[in-house]
Amino acid sequence: MFTTGLFTFATATLAVCLIAPNGAIAQPSTAPSPTASPNTGNGQAQQVQLAVPFGTVNGQLVISGQNLMFINGQDPSGSFVVPRGDIRNASVQNGDLTFDLTRPVRDPGGSTSRLVFRAANPDGAQQFTRWFHETQPATGEANRVTEPPAGANAQQPLMSFQVKHDHFIGSDSGRLMVTPTQVVYESVTNVDNSRQWNLSDIKEVHRDGPYKLKLVPFSGDDYSFELMGQGMTSDQYQMLVERITSARVHH
To answer: Closest Cα to residue 74, out of 56, 96, 60, 57?
Structure first.
């Protein structure tokens, strides 16, 4: 049996322009009206079960701006984010909330182009379909290489990835972003593990296939990441290496 719960989603602020929910911790809040607008529901979480091939996974489904986030209540490293632009359709039928995706995402069951949730509060599930139908997708897609227009914010992310960070004991998950001057990691599950590095302060960067990336700064601990979703392409990695090299030369 479900226990209904809503949570306020608080976003940790860094000196970057974010494109996905980051550094967030869910805390108790008052439930919004089922008829509230998508903006009113923004930042709220619903208790859900995610259908996977081997059963279900308990967690929370969150709307945060142009992103839909599933926070895995059983294994935080299995959390993931889906940009609004990657959702082709959203519907509710017989208590099941279904999202059809334009490109696959890696959930706890593997790679899938369809996400099916059973919401603890059927009325609350409607806020997600309203959010889909009444908001416009953000221009562009996640995990792509973009060049900012002239005069754009110097910290506008060029690339953004959903990642898991493994450390000596345990792991946490969040977003890894590459800006014109920095690499920023914002942990969703443990804000104390969030870090940011100037490109000129990065000694080495290593990519082991699309889903493994290691940052070695000149000072401080190394950070190893497992990239979720689409991973990092060879072109994206080459861009990162070139920017780090250029930043060191001009530092």
So the answer is: 57
